[in-house]
Protein: Universal stress protein
Organism: Pseudoduganella lutea
Amino acid sequence: MYRKILITTDGSAVSRMTACAGVSFAQQLGAEVLALFVAPEYQYPIYVEIIPPSYPSEEEYRAAMARAGRDHVQSIVASCDKKGVRCESMTAFAESAALKIVEIAAQKGCDLIFIGSHGRSGWGQLLLGSVTNKVLSHSKIPVLVHRLLQEPLPE
């Protein structure tokens, strides 16, 4: 049915639990996984004429976010290794995580995006917006939204 599944993570406990479910789903289907972390683009401080010396350079920021991305996708890669699921991982940079997720899925030949939902509804969903909702509205490939029935325990 599905051959390549994009599983995205933001490094949160909810995201890790969703990713674990995504890897199990991929294993059941015999699909491979693309683990993705989307980092925000570098932002210069606004309304400042001189950048403070303690503010990271763009190179330092990108290196730090690449390390964070490797750390965040590592749990997906480890889960795939443990379950015998082929996995590729990557970190991307974008202003809009949702649009980047959709773009990468298309570029890498994924036929499903597996993404989590925090289960907000009503005003919470309206006021906060949602990467998941944006992915749903922009993706041309199927999107499977995994909703946790119980919030993870605090770390």
